[in-house]
Amino acid sequence: MGMIAAGALSAMFYCHRASAKNLTTGTGAKLGALTGIFGGMFTIIYTSVVFVFWGGAQFHAAMMEQLNQYAAQMHDPRQLELIEYFKTPTGLAVVVVLGTLIMLFLFLAFSTLGGALGAMWVRRRHRS
Asked: Where are the domains of the chain?
């Protein structure tokens, strides 16, 4: 919800600078995408700093506990092999990088949607 709201707010703040007639859905989507990129990058930087300096060991321990619980329920050798890979330092790095990329994509997608919805709402409000 926060990502959608951030995109919508970017379109609404843009409307205060420019005319509502210039604010198309495409422009709102672009503003939302830009907001999503900035928000995603800020979150990635913040998460990386916290992970490296304060929470790396705790994150690794919690992930190992979850993987061990998941492995106890699995009977497929291929899945067990994958779980063992994620327990290695390389596997942990893969999880962190993939999680970061997925988070960035979600920021981009939901903020773009929010920007388009915000632009539609602003245009509809200014027509009346």
From this structure: 2-127
**CA dist., res. 8 & res. 119, Å (int):** 7
* Contact call for residues 28 and 119 (beta carbons, < 8 A): yes
pLDDT digit string (tens) for 45-101? 988 888 788 777 787 788 888 888 888 888 888 888 888 888 888 888 888 889 889
| CA 108/CA 6 separation, integer angstroms | 11
Compute the half-sphere exposure of residue 39: CA atoms within 13 Å on the CB side of its CA.
Answer: 23
The neighbour count for residue 120, using CB atoms within 10 Å, is 16
Tokens describing residue 28: 């709102």
Q: What's the rounded Cα separation, in Å, for the pair 118 and 19?
A: 14
Q: Are 15 and 122 in contact (CB under 8 A)?
A: yes
CB 112 within 8 A of CB 33: yes
Q: Which of 120, 125, 109 is nearest to 32 (CA)?
A: 109
